[in-house]
Amino acid sequence: MTLNRLTSQMKFVLTLITLVFVFALACSHPPPGRGAGEIETSQASQSSFKVETVIPNLEIVWSIVWAPDGRMLFTERPGRVRVFENGKLRPQPLFVVPDVEPRGESGLMGIALHPQFASNHLLYLAYAYNSNGQQVRVARYRETPAGFVDRKVIIESIPAAQFHAGCRLRFGPDGKLYVTTGDATDRQLAQQLNSLAGKTLRLNDDGSVPSDNPFVGKSDARPEVWTYGNRNGEGIDFQPGTNLLWETEHGPSGFDGPGGGDEVNILERGKNYGWPVIHHRATHEGMESPILEYTPACAPASGMFYRGSQFPQFKGNFFFGCLRGERIIRVVTNGRQVVSQENLLEGKYGRIRDVAEGPDGYIYFSTSNRDGRGSPASDDDRILRLVPVR
Question: Is 266 contained in some domain?
Answer without folding.
Answer: no
